[in-house]
Design brief:
113 residues, alpha+beta, OB fold (Dihydrolipoamide Acetyltransferase, E2P), 3-stranded antiparallel β-sheet, 2 helices
Amino acid sequence: MLRFFLISSFFSFALFSHNPWDLKITERIVNRKHISHIILETRPDHYRITLLVSDRFPYNYKSKSYPLYLKIENEKIAITTAKELDQYLDRGFELSLHLKGSEIISFTYHDPN
């Protein structure tokens, strides 16, 4: 019985690498299932990479989408960052977003290893 408990507790911790309940209110962990679109926008003084994010529900018709954006000054950097984000998320990895309202202050790639 003890062996079963130890094995099951090990696998439960391995399956959930990041507990969303332990995050601060200004942090968010997302993957490709949460992000439906990555959009490049131009503003008069900067560029934006906008992520259309939706919370997952058992039935997707109840989910609500909302934008989170990252301010970038240079067009070339914005394009390369958007491509990197898209490729990273397409590989199935997670991304940690640090937010101030709907603005992404910084983001961190989660290393799968």
